[in-house]
Recover the amino acids of this structure.
């Protein structure tokens, strides 16, 4: 089944306006995205490499913190939980997150690791190098248990839990199962955003989202024909044992498969693309909030496609506001 624009403008606007009533807890790998921007004017005399004269430094929330940022930008009240290192970059990142209006639920200090930091060096608007500083081992068991306990104690004040796993050690199988069991007691939906290697840890999730590359790592090349796509996704959803599997397909839009047997490929809108970085987080954030507001999976997918279209028209990892979502309808 192919779908798009299968909801009225009035329904679309009503759902987007309701995003502000949603309360979401994001738990996962908190990272710092650092950008060093400058110019290249010469080559190093020490080695044949470019010398970048840094003119601007910037740190943005990354990983689970970027997911939280996307949900917040769309209008939701957002809480964040996870780990940072015992370092200045972690403290500054928490300050940045709080200043943005995101609530700190349980951001614990793990002395066994630095705050995960991905430094991108950009010259003449082109990324020339990325430097990663991280330790990806699981957090010590006492910290895992403390995180799960504090998350469990706060579930009465949220409408959904998002588990954002980048395989940096915040979400172990033990932590995931404990949090999911707590969420089940409160009848809260759990939205999982895993890497392929950990996807099976989220069995029982309400929604599990993957991008195209992640989906293909788990199940092989994605078919081009929609009738083949229906079977392909249904089999993967059954293997992962989740209620809804959502896959973002880049320029092809997105597809979802439900436990009920419902499935749909929602094509992307024809737009000028400037940058796809972070668009997947924006897309699944909009899908999540739409579901929480009572949208059907198809309605949520249509809204998510609009959000993704807004995101890729911006340069860099970008968020989307409700106002931009509403304006995007009128541009179709």
């Amino acid at each position: 089944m192919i779908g798009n624009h299968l909801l009225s403008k009035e329904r679309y606007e009503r759902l987007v306006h309701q995003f502000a009533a949603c309360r979401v807890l994001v738990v996962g790998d908190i990272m710092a995205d650092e950008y060093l921007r400058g110019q290249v004017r010469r080559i190093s005399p020490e080695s044949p490499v470019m010398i970048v004269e840094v003119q601007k430094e910037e740190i943005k929330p990354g990983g689970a913190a970027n997911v939280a940022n996307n949900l917040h930008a769309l209008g939701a009240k957002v809480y964040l939980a996870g780990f940072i290192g015992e370092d200045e970059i972690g403290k500054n990142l928490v300050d940045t997150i709080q200043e943005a209006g995101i609530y700190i639920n349980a951001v614990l200090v793990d002395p066994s690791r630095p705050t995960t930091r991905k430094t991108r060096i950009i010259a003449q608007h082109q990324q020339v190098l990325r430097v990663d500083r991280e330790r990806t081992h699981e957090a010590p068991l006492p910290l895992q248990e403390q995180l799960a306990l504090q998350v469990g104690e706060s579930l009465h004040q949220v409408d959904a839990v998002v588990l954002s796993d980048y395989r940096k050690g915040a979400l172990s199988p033990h932590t995931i199962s404990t949090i999911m069991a707590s969420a089940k007691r409160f009848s809260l939906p759990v939205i999982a955003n895993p890497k392929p290697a950990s996807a099976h840890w989220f069995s029982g999730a309400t929604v599990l989202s993957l991008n195209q590359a992640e989906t293909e790592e788990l199940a092989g090349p994605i078919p081009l024909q929609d009738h083949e796509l229906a079977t392909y996704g249904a089999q993967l959803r059954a293997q992962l044992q989740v209620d809804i599997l959502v896959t973002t397909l880049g320029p092809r839009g997105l597809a979802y498969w439900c436990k009920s047997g419902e499935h749909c490929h929602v094509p992307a809108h024809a737009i000028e693309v400037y940058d796809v970085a972070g668009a997947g987080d924006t897309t699944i954030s909009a899908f999540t909030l739409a579901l929480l507001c009572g949208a059907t999976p198809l309605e949520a997918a249509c809204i998510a496609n609009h959000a993704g279209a807004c995101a890729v028209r911006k340069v860099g990892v970008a968020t989307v506001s409700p106002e931009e979502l509403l304006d995007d309808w009128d541009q179709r």
